[in-house]
């Protein structure tokens, strides 16, 4: 009981002194280290893992303190990067998971993703909330790697879900060096064993639009696809409208999925989506469920940060000191009207269903 | 101030409006000819009303008490009509209606049919002359009316009595302010309530006290959706009270519940929506808004105080110039404001705008927005010109009902209706014209309104 009171007392204060460990822990460095260590890790997942590592370092004993700490750490992390959208989707999911699992009896907190939370009925809180809290905390710490492995499995599940929508003798257009899309295409080109039925390999061709800014990633994907015997043609971005007539389907990846079922993805995806819509070719998005989030931009300039991509100037001198530097890794927002469907790890769903899931999951 | 005369205005106006111009002028002429009549009958009105009263009394002599009540209502109706009709008739009534509903042709028929149909014509034809004639097909729409305090039920609490008058005169107008005032008044009712011997609060309060208050309020002005939602909630709280609890405890618990409800669903919700709405205002934006709404005003002021540099275009409802008030408040704060008193040059104004902000009176379950008449026209044009429409709304305003047109649910403006025509106060904007709905649960698309309702149910 004393702990609870302690927590309540420190909650109002800016958490000073109570958590020496929490203060010395550098969440930003951890996040960047995790991303560097594992090139397959997505930004939301790295954020979640960094938060779990932080929980391991902190000595908090109460629920409220933890939720408050997770919140401040998430804010710290978000403030440290220029484009915090994908990352914030991860931290939101994690804090929602914490809240949900602390509301529920310890026994049902075994699913670290907390994704199906809507289907579980809210159960009455335990008599000793901090006991359940300790269970959840221990569970998280023991299984911290589980998030990462699940995330990687998610890519395989997307491949299994998406292959049903790829057909023989079709041409698929993609861009941007997305790992999820690369995996989806290469898995589809091999046979897949469902257990009760072995799906034969798909024979399709891939048209790869190469963005000079993402040359390295694109080259990697193209090479691995060709290594699998898939016919791949690379075209420059400028040839997209020209090539569209030859295309049957467009598949892209996403950095984050917004609350209305749109996507935030590398710059150029929006133009690709508009071209696909104009030529009436369906656009599919391959994205894990953990990329879904509450962000809701109404247009491309409705972000909390300025990408400074557009800079007017009447000065020919390129070394102008006042000149702004465009954000590295620029992004754009593709509205849901341009998207046919999502290949997610749990199912294939329309943008409207995404919107519903975000409300169920995170609001 | 921008000029109202420009070539775009004709283009901007929804087509049916032009067709109706001739009809309007006709209606206007009719109204003018009627104008003289009410004035002359004004004095005679009392005599005639008493006649009607006597007649009604004679008719229902046996059920004396009930009849008394009914008659008093009739009188009230008559009086309201008399007091409001002269001078305010103007050529307006038909025009507004036409404009608000520009897109559906049904209203054209309504205006035309306004005259000949006399629904439920009571025996005394003279009295009905002064009343606002509502065609049979619109008889489901209700109207605010002033009920003299002396004719209210004796059990109506004084605070509710006052609130009813404020609502009937539109002193308290916005859905959320009405809701808050209602809850506070009910709180007073609960505080002063004494359970009669042999009864329990949980059983006695709702049917014998609360319902009387609600009836009176509804008679003063039709309930808004948020009030309906909150009253359902309040009744549930009363029925959930512990039977064995003492009266003091029960009352305390109810008052506490109301306080929490106001804090959560109104105060904090407003703060959060203001903040979130303001986030969508960026440097260099031109924010267009229609009429005046507290939430929109707060969001604009919040964005301004956060240091965002933007200007505001206030478009006003020519029949209730509340936008002037908004424009004044904003200019006082140093925000650059362009004001337009009506829809003249709407297209031109919209071209300059970058975002459109509305606040919903209510949200229907199909994602349609119920708001001040004229909102739909503005939203449609915004959509056509590719401007983003942002709607602000507290979740208490979301109703489980569905409306695809503006006539299923609406309210007749008692102050701007005549014998020849009546004006509707609201219209319904389909979800496809709304880009974003900001609520205290989060920002969603308008179509997701029912998902928010479901989410709210899960919380309870």
TrEMBL record, chain A:
The keyword Cytoplasm applies. Coiled coil: none annotated. Residues 105-119 have a biased composition (Low complexity). SUPFAM superfamilies: NagB/RpiA/CoA transferase-like. The keyword Transport does not apply. It is found in: Cytoplasm, Cytosol. It comes from the Eukaryota. Keywords: Cytoplasm, Initiation factor, Protein biosynthesis. Residues 105-128 are annotated as: Disordered. InterPro entries: eIF2B_alpha/beta/delta (IPR051501), elF-2B_alpha_N (IPR042528), IF-2B-related (IPR000649), IF_2B-like_C (IPR042529), NagB/RpiA_transferase-like (IPR037171). Belongs to the eIF-2B alpha/beta/delta subunits family. Component of the translation initiation factor 2B (eIF2B) complex which is a heterodecamer of two sets of five different subunits: alpha, beta, gamma, delta and epsilon. Subunits alpha, beta and delta comprise a regulatory subcomplex and subunits epsilon and gamma comprise a catalytic subcomplex. Within the complex, the hexameric regulatory complex resides at the center, with the two heterodimeric catalytic subcomplexes bound on opposite sides. This is Translation initiation factor eIF2B subunit alpha. It comes from Apiospora aurea. The lineage of its organism: Eukaryota, Fungi, Dikarya, Ascomycota, Pezizomycotina.
UniProtKB/TrEMBL annotation, chain B:
Keywords: Cytoplasm, Initiation factor, Protein biosynthesis. Residues 17-64 have a biased composition (Basic and acidic residues). InterPro entries: IF-2B-related, IF_2B-like_C, NagB/RpiA_transferase-like. Belongs to the eIF-2B alpha/beta/delta subunits family. Residues 105-114 have a biased composition (Low complexity). Its main location: cytoplasm. PANTHER family: TRANSLATION INITIATION FACTOR EIF-2B, TRANSLATION INITIATION FACTOR EIF-2B SUBUNIT DELTA. Transmembrane segments: none annotated. The keyword Cytoplasm applies. The lineage of its organism: Eukaryota, Fungi, Dikarya, Ascomycota, Pezizomycotina. Residues 1-124 are annotated as: Disordered. This is Translation initiation factor eIF2B subunit delta. Component of the translation initiation factor 2B (eIF2B) complex which is a heterodecamer of two sets of five different subunits: alpha, beta, gamma, delta and epsilon. Subunits alpha, beta and delta comprise a regulatory subcomplex and subunits epsilon and gamma comprise a catalytic subcomplex. Within the complex, the hexameric regulatory complex resides at the center, with the two heterodimeric catalytic subcomplexes bound on opposite sides. The keyword rRNA-binding does not apply. It comes from Apiospora aurea. It is found in: Cytoplasm, Cytosol.
């Amino acid at each position: 009981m004393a702990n609870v009171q302690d927590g309540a007392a420190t909650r109002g204060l800016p958490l000073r002194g109570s958590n020496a460990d929490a203060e010395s822990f550098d969440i930003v460095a951890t996040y960047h280290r995790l991303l560097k260590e594992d090139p397959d890790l997505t930004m939301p997942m790295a954020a979640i893992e960094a938060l779990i590592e932080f929980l391991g370092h902190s000595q908090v004993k109460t629920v409220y303190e933890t939720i408050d700490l997770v919140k401040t750490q998430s804010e710290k992390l978000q403030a440290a990067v220029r484009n915090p959208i994908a990352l914030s989707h991860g931290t939101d999911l994690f804090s929602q998971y914490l809240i949900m699992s602390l509301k529920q009896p310890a026994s049902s907190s075994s699913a670290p993703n907390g994704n199906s939370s809507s289907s579980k009925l809210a159960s009455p809180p335990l008599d000793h909330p901090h006991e359940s809290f300790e269970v959840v905390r221990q569970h998280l710490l023991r299984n911290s790697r589980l998030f990462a492995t699940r995330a990687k499995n998610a890519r395989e599940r997307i491949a299994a879900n998406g292959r049903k929508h790829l057909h023989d003798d079709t041409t698929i257009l993609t861009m941007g060096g997305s790992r999820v899309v690369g995996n989806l295409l290469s898995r589809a080109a091999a046979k897949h064993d469902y257990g009760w039925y072995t799906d034969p390999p798909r024979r399709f061709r891939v048209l790869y639009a190469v963005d000079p800014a993402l040359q390295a990633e694109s080259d990697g994907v193209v090479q691995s696809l060709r290594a699998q015997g898939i016919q791949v043609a690379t075209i420059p971005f400028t040839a997209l409208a020209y090539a569209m007539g030859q295309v049957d389907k467009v598949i892209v990846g996403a950095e984050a999925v917004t609350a209305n079922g749109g996507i935030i993805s590398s710059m150029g995806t929006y133009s690709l989506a508009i071209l696909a819509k104009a030529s009436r070719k369906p656009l599919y998005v391959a994205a894990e469920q953990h990329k879904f989030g509450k962000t809701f931009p109404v247009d491309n300039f409705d972000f909390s940060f300025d990408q400074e991509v557009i800079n007017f100037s009447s000065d020919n001198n390129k070394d102008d000191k006042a000149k702004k530097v465009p954000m590295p890794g620029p992004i754009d927002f593709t509205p849901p009207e341009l998207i046919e469907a999502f290949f997610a790890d749990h199912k294939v769903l329309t943008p409207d269903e995404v919107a519903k899931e975000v409300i169920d999951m995170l609001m | 101030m921008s000029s109202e005369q420009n070539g775009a205005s004709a283009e901007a106006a929804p087509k049916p409006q032009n067709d109706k111009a001739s009809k309007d002028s006709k209606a206007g002429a009719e109204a003018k000819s009627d104008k003289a009549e009410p004035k002359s009958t004004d004095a005679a009105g009392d005599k005639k009303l008493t006649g009607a009263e006597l007649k009604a009394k004679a008719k229902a002599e046996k059920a004396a008490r009930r009849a008394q009540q009914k008659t008093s209502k009739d009188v009230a109706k008559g009086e309201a009509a008399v007091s409001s009709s002269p001078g305010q008739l103007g050529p307006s009534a038909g025009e507004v209606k036409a404009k608000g509903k520009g897109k559906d042709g049904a209203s054209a028929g309504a205006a035309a049919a306004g005259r000949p149909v006399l629904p439920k014509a009571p025996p005394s034809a003279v009295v009905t002359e002064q009343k606002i004639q509502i065609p049979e097909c619109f008889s489901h729409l209700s109207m605010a009316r002033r009920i003299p305090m002396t004719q209210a039920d004796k059990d109506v609490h004084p605070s509710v009595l006052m609130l009813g008058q404020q609502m009937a005169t539109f002193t308290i107008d916005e859905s959320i302010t009405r809701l808050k005032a209602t809850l506070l008044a009910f709180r007073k009712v609960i505080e002063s309530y004494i359970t009669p011997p042999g009864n329990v609060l949980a059983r006695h309060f709702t049917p014998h006290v609360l319902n009387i208050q609600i009836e009176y309020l509804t008679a003063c002005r039709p309930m808004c959706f948020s009030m309906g939602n909150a009253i359902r909630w309040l009744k549930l709280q009363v029925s959930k009270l512990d039977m064995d609890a003492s009266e003091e405890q029960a009352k305390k618990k109810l008052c506490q519940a109301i306080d929490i409800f106001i804090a959560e669903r109104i105060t904090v919700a407003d703060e959060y929506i203001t903040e979130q709405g303001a986030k969508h205002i960026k440097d260099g934006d031109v924010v267009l808004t229609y009429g005046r709404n507290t939430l929109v005003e707060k969001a604009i002021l919040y964005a301004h105080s956060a240091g965002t540099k933007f200007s505001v275009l206030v478009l006003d409802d020519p029949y209730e110039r509340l936008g002037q008030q908004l424009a004044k408040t904003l200019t006082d704060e140093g925000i650059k404001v362009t004001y337009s008193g009506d829809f003249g040059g709407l297209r031109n104004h919209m071209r300059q705008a970058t975002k459109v902000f509305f606040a919903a009176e209510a949200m229907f379950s199909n994602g349609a927005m119920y708001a001040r008449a004229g909102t739909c026209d503005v939203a449609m044009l915004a959509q056509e010109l590719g401007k983003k429409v942002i709607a602000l709304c507290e979740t208490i305003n979301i109703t489980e009902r569905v409306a695809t047109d503006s006539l299923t649910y609406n309210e007749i403006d008692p102050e701007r209706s005549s014998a020849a025509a009546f004006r509707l106060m609201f219209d319904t904007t389909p979800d496809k014209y709304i880009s974003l709905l900001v609520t205290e649960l989060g920002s969603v698309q308008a179509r997701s309104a029912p998902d928010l309702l479901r989410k709210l149910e899960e919380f309870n």
